[in-house]
Structure formats: C-alpha cells, structure tokens
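Batch manifest line 336
LIGAND: cobalt (II) ion
JOB: complex structure
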Amino acid sequence: MNLTTTAATAATLRPPNKLPKPNDACWCASGKKYKKCHQDADAEFVKEERKRLEANRVKPGRISPMRVVPDNIPKPDYWQTGQPSRGSGRVVRTAEEIPRMRKAGLAAARILRMAGEFVKPGITTDDIDAYVHELTIKAGGYPSPLNYRGYPKSVCTSVNEVICHGIPDDRKLLDGDIVNLDVTIFLEGVHGDCNATFCVGNVDEESKQLIRVTHECLMKGIEAVKPGRPISDIGRAIEQHSDHYGYGVVRAYCGHGISETFHNSLQIPHYFDARSTTKMEVGMTFTIEPMIAMGTWEETTWDDEWTAVTKDLKRTAQFEHTVLVTETGCDILTRE
Ligand code: MF3
Ligand code: CO
Ligand code: CO
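JOB STATUS: finished
ARTIFACT:
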C-alpha cells in the first residue's frame, strides 16, 4: 500500500472545523453548494472521528491517598478544612507583598520546569504528583492545590481532551499524549501559579500547532496588560489569535487575582467580554491562563466534579503565568 497517497487522500477529505450551511458554497472550492458536494462525506467523517475519540478518551483511574506535608511547612488557611477564607478583598499589592509574590512565582516556575522535564511515556500522572509534592516541600512551600476546596492532589495533570483540573491517578502517559501540568506553591504567605502543556514522546503536528498557538495566546494576553486599560483587552487579544486558527476559547474558566488567597475577586476572561470594564492598576497581581480547544469551547465535568473535558473530546492546551501590573505593562512573576 502506498502510505503517502493514503495520507494525502485523508487530508483532502478532512472537513474544516466550522462546516458550511447546506446552501453555502462547499469548503473544497468546487463552486458547488455544500449539500451537493461534501456534506454527506463530512457527516460520515465526523461520525467516524467521534467513534475514534470516544474509544481513546481519557478514563478515570485510581487515586492514591492524600500526601502529607511536614509540620514545619507554613500552610494556607484551608489546608485542613478545605475551605479558603475570603482574604483581604484588596486586589492591589502593597510594596511589602511584591517581593514575596516574586519569590513564590519564581519557585512555581522552577518546579513546573522540572516537572515538565520528568514527563515521558510510561510514567503515571500520580508519579508526577509525587515529584511535584516533593519539589514543593523542598522549596519550603505548600502545594496549593492540596485540599483546596477538597481537591485531593498537589498538582493538576490534564491529558488530551482534559481542559483543566485533571486529578493525578494511575493512568500511564502514552506516546503521543499531550499533558498540562498546573503547579501552584504557597510560599512566603502568598501563591505563585503557572502551567504549561508538554508533549509525551512523539506527538502529531496538529497537536504541536495547538500547543504553539496556545502559548502565543498567553503571550498576546500578557502584551495587552497596561494600567488604565480595561481587563477585557486581555481576552480580546487572546480570542483574536485563537480565532485565526479556528480554535475555541474555553469560557467556563478564567484567570484570577492571586496573592494571599489562591483566587480573589478579580476575574480575567480569555475571550472578549464587554462586561470586564475593571481597569488594570499598577500593583495588581493576577493570572492569565488561556485554555484553547481544537474544536468546541464547550465543556463538561466528570463525576469527580473536578475534571473538565471538551464536549467534542477534541484536544485542548493551556499555558499560565502570574503577572504583576507595572507602569509600562507587566512583569511575569512565574519566569526563571
Ligand atoms: N491552578 C489552578 C488555576 O490556575 C487552580 C487549581 S484549583 C485545584 O487556577 F483545586 F484544582 F487545585
Ligand atoms: Co490560575
Ligand atoms: Co494554575
């Protein structure tokens, strides 16, 4: 069999993400109406693809017991109860808080990098959890996710169609998977929060493009940070870049103000939301963490009440930084 021809045929038959209406021109440039051209073939393709995605979907695994944090590590208020307090309500940091935010941000960035270097086919997401837990404690910090609103692990590990908040379990990473690691450390009385999506072994070109574009979306969002400008500028920049590739911007989860509380009242949507009129101010610290999907932005949640997945089971990627608004733009705190 000639594999090159087979691949080329499959590629020309692959319908675009957004399908035309029956009476619109077909996407293939034949000049025919869609209903007289590729409509039936596309319906078949979508059905087959759905079957393949269903068969390969990520399934919940076995979750190991909660890991222990030594007595000498300072802990956030929710560590035992699972319920975070409201915090000060301030969204602008004092001069005294900023150096502490920098330390927590830097520690989170280091742990995320090391966890990313640890990713390879055959390890389980629970192995990653054990490693992040150990690195966080070695840095003198508490792994913020642990018991945050009852979350049972020290890091979020989100594989393929999992958008965010994937719980580490005994599932082995497979060659060709993509996995997002979301690391947050409570250090010096404040949180530093960042995440990145990593390739497991050899990954297909489509997924690699998704990962590259998602990182570009984060950086475009960061470039839009300017004191005096509305928060909606950030999502506008992200959505514009994502739209260019026909990807979906997940709407259910936003960036957030962060400091002595993991999540404060500031919300940073990653799509354009005209209601986000709050002006950015020097000294604000918040995260930007776009979740970009190959297909639909719509999500559902597993029965575990944490794991968010795309409705169409297509892959999704995410990158996150914690930033500090400055006179000229912002500083990325979660960068080495
Ligand atoms: N780190 C995530 C964020 O970026 C929050 C995880 S909450 C947890 O906001 F409970 F799932 F850990
Ligand atoms: Co965050
Ligand atoms: Co995070």
